[in-house]
Design a protein that fits this description.
This protein is α/β, with parallel strands linked by helices. The chain contains 11 helices and 10 strands. Bound molecules: acetoacetyl-coenzyme A. Acetoacetyl-coenzyme A binds at residues 22-23, 25, 61-66, 104, 106-108, 130-131, 134, 136, 138-140.
């Protein structure tokens, strides 16, 4: 049975993680399957937004502890490059990625969600970075991304205590964008994807790139970069379609992704 499914609805790609036996624990083979699904989304220029979700009670319950247990330093260094690489790939994808978190997102599971652009939580989620309770720390970007999202103090509290928090606490600290009833999670994810997908796709990709640059730049460098990216959009057909549509008082315009 496939553990990772990829499908497309309109301009949205959907990746569903479905390895219930171990709550989608991230091992090397599973990470490869996720990468294969990402290849499909990336190769399709008609996919403007991607949603990632899990089935059953877990989004991802973490990296596979059984696979990690016997590894020595060199082996774990090599192994952790898989998770780290996957999260960097997600973060750097040109299109927005929505994590529709359906249940446990722990350790490597939360690290993966942190690399997504938008996080939605179903009411019953449990989130945390419990690695210190296993005698280790995150190995796939958690110490780097969590403080940027929730601030250093809150990140330190979560990582040092290994506490697992619920949806309400996650929303309060800005770890998730919104909470939705479990039965509405996918509808909510597709609603956001559709709202993104009706805007200019080249503009959306430009916005993602410019926002990412804000993590590595001074405000002056960032504003310069933004103007560069902004001005390039005036070479696109979509800029004429969007602005022309406004000037002609058209209600809806259809962008062409060029
Ligand atoms: N690795 C390997 N197997 C896992 C797993 C993981 N991270 N999480 C769950 N499983 C397996 C369980 O071993 C169990 O397998 P068996 O049926 O063969 O015993 C199966 O999934 C179902 O899990 P539980 O019976 O434990 O389910 P539960 O509902 O009682 O508990 C849970 C759910 C609280 C999420 C619990 O499974 C749990 O605590 N999992 C581990 C969470 C964790 O510590 N994650 C961090 C791992 S380290 C990491 O991710 C990071 C890194 O960067 C190094």
């Amino acid at each position: 049975m496939e553990n990772v499914r990829y499908e497309k609805r309109g301009h949205t790609g959907l990746i569903t993680l479905d390895k219930a036996a171990d709550l989608n624990a991230l091992n090397a083979a599973f990470i490869q399957e996720i990468n294969n699904a990402l290849d499909q989304a990336e190769q399709d220029e008609d996919v403007y937004v991607l949603i990632l979700t899990g089935t059953g009670k877990a989004f991802i319950a973490g990296a596979d502890i059984a696979e990690m247990y016997e590894k020595d330093r060199a082996a774990i260094m090599e192994w952790s490059a898989l998770g780290s690489g996957l999260n960097l790939r997600l973060e750097n994808m040109k299109i927005p990625v929505i994590a529709a978190i359906n249940g446990y997102a722990l350790g490597g599971g939360l690290e993966l969600a942190l690399a997504c652009d938008i996080r939605l939580a179903s009411q019953s989620v449990k989130l945390g970075l419990p690695e210190t309770s296993l005698g280790v720390i995150c190995g796939a970007g958690g110490t780097q991304r969590l403080p940027r999202i929730v601030g250093e103090g809150m990140a330190k509290e979560l990582i040092f205590t290994a506490d697992v928090i619920d949806a309400r606490q996650a929303l309060n600290i800005g770890l998730v964008n919104r909470i939705v009833p479990a039965e509405d999670l996918m509808d909510a994810a597709f609603q956001i994807a559709d709202a993104i997908g009706k805007n200019g796709p080249i503009a959306i990709r430009a916005a993602k790139k410019a926002i990412a640059f804000s993590n590595v730049s001074s405000i002056e460098e960032g504003c310069h970069f933004e103007r560069e990216v902004f001005s390039r959009l005036f070479e696109t057909e979509d800029q004429k379609i969007g602005m022309g549509g406004f000037l002609r008082k058209e209600k809806n315009v259809t962008f062409k992704n060029r």
